[in-house]
Structures are given as C-alpha cells and as structure tokens.
TrEMBL record:
Keyword annotations: Methyltransferase, Transferase
Record-given protein name: Class I SAM-dependent methyltransferase
One GO MF term: methyltransferase activity
Record-linked PANTHER family: HEPATOCELLULAR CARCINOMA-ASSOCIATED ANTIGEN
GO biological process: methylation
Organism: Dokdonella ginsengisoli
C-alpha cells in the first residue's frame, strides 16, 4: 500500500465482523511504474476499487448466510473483496477476481487483518477468455453493471464460467442497467428474482438498490 493513505473500517455482515483497510479518499493516484496505463484504468477511475461501496456491503450481507456448502464460488470485480472475505470466514471455496493491479495487495492485507488465510485471487480481464479458470456453481459481483456496455461484456464471462446448474448474484445500486442484464441472462436460460434493498441507513422506500439473483436449471 506504499504511496496511499488508508483508513481502517469495521463492518458487520450478519454474524461476521470485518476489519477492512480502505483508501482514505477517492482522490488518490500513485502510478510511478505505469500499471494504470497498462491496465487501461484512467486516473479518475484508479481509486474506485479501494472504497467501501454500499453495493459491496449489500453483497457481503447477502453472502453472510447464503447457502455455500459444496459450491465453487467466483467473485467478479471484487475491489476490496468484502464478500469474498465474508465467504472465507465461512470456510467457502471462493476465488476473488479483479483487473485492478492493487486489488490483490489490499485483499491479502485485509485477509491477514482478520486472521484469515489468503483468499485465492486471479486477475481477470472480462475481455479476455480464461479457459483454465474453470466453471463455478455460484458467481457473484457488486456494482458490476456500472456502464450499459457491461451487461454484454459479462454475458460471455457467465457463459464460459457458470456450470449448467448455476446461480448468479449481483448487488446493484440502481444505475438502470439491470433490465439489459436480465435479458442477456434470460437468453442463457436464467430466471431472475429481484429484491429491493436500502443503499443507506436513512433511505426510505422505494429503495433504489436491488439484489438480483439469477438461477438456471438444466432440464
């Protein structure tokens, strides 16, 4: 974490308490060796991975009691990896992925901060096939529909890495792109269940956030 100012945040998701080292603010940018340029991440987007976002907390809460026994789990765009850390606390078989060069460093530090063994991590560019990644029973992500194009970008990722009998859970803060994701996954045989959720403690209904659960069952 050299070159960055951080803050320690304590969070609770169900029975699980997490201590998380996050960036102190979103204005930081330190890229002396050009990792940002090589990863295609602009200076404006560089620090977004290191913030505790409401959608990330929503996904972590959902994973605090989600059925996980015997499942192989993939987190997309993990950022600080709140959901993966909660799953690791529960003894789940989880692989965290992101494309930000600092994500594995923060994830490893936060696992150690909570007395956890390292969370398996893999750099994953959604544009590039990763045939050795394999297939998963459960694929999760928070705020991964940040732009309208992301639904189409994620479609082949799900197709390549979801098992025939699979579940996808996405925590979405209501950016307006979930309907397109619903259509994309319906074409792959998934049905969606949507649960509205508050993104802030003082938020009142109708809540803007939602937990999107997609399930596919082969005949």
């Amino acid at each position: 974490m050299t070159g960055y100012e951080t803050r320690l945040v304590t969070l609770r998701f169900g029975e699980h308490e997490l201590h998380v080292r996050a960036l102190a603010d979103l204005q930081q940018y330190d890229d002396p060796d050009g990792r940002a340029e090589r990863a295609g991440i602009s200076s404006a987007q560089w620090s977004l991975f290191g913030h505790v976002w409401p959608a990330g907390c929503l996904l972590a809460r959902a994973m605090s009691d989600h059925p996980v026994e015997g499942k192989r789990i993939l987190e997309l765009g993990c950022g600080l990896g709140l959901a993966s850390l909660v799953l690791k606390k529960r003894g789940a078989d989880v692989l965290a992925t992101d494309h930000h060069p600092l994500a594995p460093e923060f994830l490893a530090a936060n696992a150690a901060l909570n007395g956890l063994p390292p969370v398996p991590y893999r750099n994953l560019d959604w544009n590039e096939p990763a045939p050795d990644l394999g297939r998963f029973d459960l694929i999760i992500g928070s705020d991964i529909l940040y732009e309208r194009r992301h639904a189409a970008l994620l479609a082949p990722v799900f197709e390549r890495h979801a098992k025939d009998y699979a579940e996808i859970v996405i925590a979405d803060p209501g950016r307006g792109n979930s309907a397109l994701m619903n259509r994309v996954l319906a074409a792959q045989g998934y049905a969606v269940e949507e649960t509205r959720a508050a993104m802030a403690e003082d938020e009142v209904v109708p809540f803007r956030g939602r937990l999107l659960t997609y399930r596919r069952r082969t005949q």
